[in-house]
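TASK: fixed-backbone design
INPUT:
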């Protein structure tokens, strides 16, 4: 069986609940629960299960929380999804009862997670049927021998002919450690869909605009196209190779030249 790895990126969501005046006995409607601090307890050497825990609080107190639930979806296959109820009873995947951290274990119906990207969503309901805002995160499974690239960052647009330096950044991970990554680079597809054959190598050595050496964030400074260049969307396609020659996934970033 091929080894798989589950990774996650947390999508931080701040939730503000507004008190609503009413004619009830206490003058205030119960407020919905809050969900935060999602943790995916990842099994890095296999992918036949994943434990998720979430901090759940309630303005009326923890005893007002009626239920917490969650579901994941494979982003390319809506049929690949699982639903689970979270518990704070100290049983199963939950380690401490009554600590406001609710946990659940997800077991894929086909025995293992597919390769690819997943989105995970959770909500909670109180005893007055008030439902929290949805809390989301992203995780994915990859071949255990391959590096993975995620979260590319760059300018939305560039004015042609300008000489200011902008920066392209991308995060890299490797199951063998960052020292196993041999190179990270991108190629650029022009607006007319022709490909620049050059490889533009990013740095994690504190040089060429890289802020911190060895932190897994690879960086390269770029300049805007010359005035006679094509206007439109330039697609940056990223690649990473490890020392063994394994190729990563290939995230993309679009920068518009005008």
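OUTPUT:
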């Amino acid at each position: 069986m091929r080894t798989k790895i589950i990774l996650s990126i947390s999508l931080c969501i701040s939730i503000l609940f507004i008190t609503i005046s009413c004619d009830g006995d206490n003058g205030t409607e119960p407020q919905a629960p809050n969900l935060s601090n999602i943790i995916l307890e990842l099994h890095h050497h296999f992918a036949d299960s994943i434990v998720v825990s979430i901090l759940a609080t309630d303005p009326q107190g923890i005893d007002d929380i009626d239920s917490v639930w969650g579901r994941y979806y494979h982003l390319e296959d809506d049929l690949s999804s699982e639903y689970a109820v979270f518990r704070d009873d100290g049983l199963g995947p939950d380690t401490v009862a009554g600590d406001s951290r609710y946990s659940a274990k997800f077991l894929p119906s086909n025995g293992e997670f597919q390769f690819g990207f997943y989105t995970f969503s959770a909500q909670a309901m109180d005893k007055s049927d008030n439902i929290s805002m949805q809390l989301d995160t992203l995780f994915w499974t990859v071949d255990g021998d391959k590096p993975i690239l995620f979260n590319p960052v760059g300018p939305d647009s560039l004015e042609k002919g300008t000489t200011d330096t902008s920066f392209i950044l991308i995060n890299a991970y490797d199951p063998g450690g960052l020292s196993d990554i041999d190179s990270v680079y991108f190629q650029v597809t022009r607006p007319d869909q022709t490909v620049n054959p050059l490889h533009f190598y990013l740095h994690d050595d504190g040089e060429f605009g890289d802020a911190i050496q060895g932190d897994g964030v690879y960086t390269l400074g770029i300049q805007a196209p010359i005035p006679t260049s094509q206007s439109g969307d330039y697609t940056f396609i990223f690649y990473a190779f490890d020392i063994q020659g394994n190729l990563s996934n290939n995230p993309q970033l679009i920068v518009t030249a005008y």
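COMMENT: The chain has two domains: 4-143, 148-257.
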